[in-house]
């Protein structure tokens, strides 16, 4: 897997954004991802005047050959900065227009004037019209850089953003693009359809401001954290649901409906036990950066009110849950549904539950310790 990283801000004026870029690069390197670096702040990319640029050809080849793009962008007065606008003008030419088709873009945008969200929305539509789409994205200001020490909240936030982007690339996560309107409706209806369709596919911006960071653990911080986690969970959950919906397998395979753009689910299968949902949701809080390439299978055999069987597959940087039995798991956990519920919600560790006799374990019980370490159970408690 290879990504192209484009820094579209003046380095001397945006040193904090360079620090964010460093964290992103280190996190993705730990996941085994290589990156081509393009720094437009020190480039010779001219303003676009219709003349071909040799340097743009080099950038274009890098984008064409990558699996995804990471864009570090400055913004002012609700508009993306001049460097990224120059690049986009070159890309929009006939020579390069196809290079961004189908590319998943991680965008981190700096804005200090309070109009960062407007600039991000403007940039979203430009990327969408070039055939690419927005994956995780983040708006920051100068206050965000004051707390970037390793292990701190903002540092961990960037790591989670990268891990989600990694999964999006691995899952070949895309968006549904509606077909063009019929010709007879082109004049009257098409403009509205095109605009509404584009807006519906754009995920909400995640703002991080100095005001939020300054208040420590006050209510604004928890609200922002909630938005981040809701966005990540919905984004991950909808991938499987979309595949089932478009393949016509939604009726008989436990399809739980969609939650895109904050909408209500389309339909819900009431026969699906809630504990399975909670177990599956735990995969969204997998700490891929701490897995160290671990590959193992943890089977669960749950009895009682919400009885089910399933298994968790740990595969390096990915974690999956599937319902049903699997042959020769590395370890099998046998528990009553209420005890398993306490474990997946973080009320008690699996290792402690085993030690006090609340669950039974067959196989390599040492894996219980890794299971407890590799998921953030506290975020699965609701």
List the helices and strands and how they pair.
Layout: E1 2-8, H1 15-30, E2 34-39, H2 54-64, E3 68-76, E4 79-80, H3 82-91, E5 104-110, H4 116-129, E6 133-140, H5 153-170, H6 190-200, E7 207-208, H7 210-214, H8 219-247, H9 274-281, E8 295-303, E9 308-315, E10 318-323, E11 331-336, H10 337-344, H11 350-355, E12 360-363, H12 367-373
Parallel strand pairs: 1-2, 1-3, 3-5, 5-6, 6-7, 8-11
Antiparallel strand pairs: 3-4, 8-9, 9-10, 11-12
Helix pairs in contact: 1-5
Structural overview:
With 382 residues, this protein is α/β, with parallel strands linked by helices. It folds into 2 domains: 2-214, 3-Layer(aba) Sandwich (Rossmann fold), CATH 3.40.50.360; 274-380, SCP2 sterol-binding domain (Nonspecific Lipid-transfer Protein, Chain A), CATH 3.30.1050.10. Helix content is 37%, strand content 19%. The protein is built from 12 helices and 12 strands. The strands form 2 sheets. Strands 1, 2, 3, 4, 5, 6 and 7 form a 7-stranded mixed β-sheet that branches. Strands 10-9-8-11-12 form a 5-stranded mixed β-sheet. α1 (15-30) crosses α5. The longest helix is centred in the middle third of the chain and has 29 residues, at 219-247. The chain is elongated. Mean pLDDT is 76; it is low at 180-204, 209-232 and 244-272.
């Amino acid at each position: 897997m290879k990504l192209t990283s484009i820094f579209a801000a003046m380095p001397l004026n945006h040193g904090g954004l360079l620090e964010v870029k460093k964290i992103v690069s280190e996190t993705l390197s730990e996941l085994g991802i290589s990156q081509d670096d393009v720094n437009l702040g020190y480039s010779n990319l001219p303003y676009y005047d219709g003349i071909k640029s040799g340097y743009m050809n080099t950038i274009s080849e890098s984008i064409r050959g990558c699996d995804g793009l990471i864009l570090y962008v400055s913004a002012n007065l609700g508009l993306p900065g001049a460097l990224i606008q120059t690049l986009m003008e070159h890309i929009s030419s006939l020579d390069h227009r196809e290079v961004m088709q189908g590319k998943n873009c991680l965008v981190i945008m700096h804005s200090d004037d309070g109009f960062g969200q407007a600039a991000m929305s403007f940039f979203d539509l430009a990327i969408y019209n070039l055939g690419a789409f927005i994956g995780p994205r983040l708006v920051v200001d100068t206050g965000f850089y004051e707390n970037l020490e390793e292990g701190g909240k903002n540092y961990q936030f960037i790591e989670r953003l990268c891990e989600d982007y990694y999964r999006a690339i691995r899952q070949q996560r895309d968006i549904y693009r509606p077909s063009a309107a019929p010709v007879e409706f082109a004049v009257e209806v098409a403009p509205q359809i095109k605009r509404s369709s584009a807006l519906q596919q754009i995920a909400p911006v995640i703002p991080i401001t100095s005001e939020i960071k300054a208040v420590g653990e006050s209510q604004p911080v928890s609200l922002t954290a909630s938005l981040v986690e809701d966005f990540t969970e919905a984004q991950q959950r909808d991938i499987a649901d979309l595949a089932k919906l478009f393949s016509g397998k939604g009726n008989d395979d436990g399809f739980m409906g969609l939650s895109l753009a904050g909408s209500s689910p389309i339909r819900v299968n009431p026969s699906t036990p809630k504990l399975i949902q909670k177990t599956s949701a735990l995969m969204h809080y997998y700490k891929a950066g701490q897995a160290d390439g671990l590959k193992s299978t943890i089977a669960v055999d749950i009895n009682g009110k919400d009885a089910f069987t399933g298994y968790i597959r740990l595969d390096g940087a990915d974690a999956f849950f599937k319902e049903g039995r699997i042959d020769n798991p590395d370890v099998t956990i046998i528990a009553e549904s209420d005890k398993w519920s306490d474990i997946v919600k973080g009320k008690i560790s699996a290792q402690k539950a085993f030690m006090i006799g609340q669950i039974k374990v067959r196989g390599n019980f040492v894996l219980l310790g890794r299971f407890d370490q590799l998921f953030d159970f506290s975020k699965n408690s609701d």
